[in-house]
Amino acid sequence: MLYGRPPHLDNRSQLIQDHLYLVDIITRRMVTQVPSFMSRDDIRSAGMLGLLDAANKYDPAKNILFKTFAEYRIRGAIFDEMRKLDWFSRSLRDKHNRIGRTIADLEMRLGREPEEHEVAGAMDLSLDEYRAVLVEVNHLGCVSLNESLDHSEEGRSFLDNLTDDRPQAAPGARIEDQQLTATIAQVLGQLTEKERIVISLYYYEELTQKEIAEAMDLSEGRVSQLHSQALIKLKTKLDARL
């Protein structure tokens, strides 16, 4: 619902009450994507702060649905809490970015998706060392894909486009979403078969990595590696296209 004037205190309270469900949805979506030391209650508490912040800062003059604005603020508050806990060190971010750059460079040079051993060799790592780094940076990719694709307050994330539960949008917005969904589908199609299966089971079926490992007859560690590599590829390719 769009509001025709800046919300007063009673309207802010109603906005919060009407959109509490968003905190639960986003918490449920992110609970499997954070380290074990960050509990569901931690995530939900941070999300609640984001909803309060959204109610206080919402400006209907921008002609943005409050739900869209609140989703961005809730995710942002959860990211902020993660950063306060110093979840990612600079060295992990450097490793994550280096893998993405290496994959992109090899793809341009080879004209195809590089194999894992080729990425490892280009990084002067053994295959086992490369896979160990993938496990290290696994959760960093989740945060990257939860962030806005266009870095705006009303922007939608990659994961929003994988699992879209929004009400029907205006025609112009639907066209933009269709174009974005087509782009994402093309990028997903460039992943290996195992990477696509992991992404599908993790984000569509919402299985845990342990459940995916059992379904695919792989070790949990291998699923973590495939998940991490898939997210890095997706982030790199989407950044290049968008």
Provide key terms for this protein.
single chain; 242 residues; mainly alpha; Rna Polymerase Sigma Factor, Chain: A; Butyryl-CoA Dehydrogenase, subunit A, domain 3; 2 domains; 13 helices; globular; disordered N terminus
Protein architecture, described:
The chain has 242 residues and is mainly alpha-helical. It has 2 domains: 87 residues, Orthogonal Bundle (Rna Polymerase Sigma Factor, Chain: A); 116 residues, Butyryl-CoA Dehydrogenase, subunit A, domain 3, CATH 1.20.140.160. The chain is built from 13 helices and no strands. α2 packs across α3, α10 crosses α13 and α12 packs across α13. The longest helix has 22 residues. The chain is globular and about 60 Å long. It starts with 8 loop residues before the first helix and ends with a helix.
Q: Which helices and strands, and how do they pair?
A:
Blueprint: H1 9-18, H2 20-30, H3 40-57, H4 66-84, H5 90-110, H6 116-122, H7 127-136, H8 138-146, H9 158-162, H10 171-189, H11 193-204, H12 209-216, H13 220-241
Helix pairs in contact: 1-3, 2-3, 3-4, 5-13, 6-7, 7-13, 8-13, 10-13, 11-13, 12-13
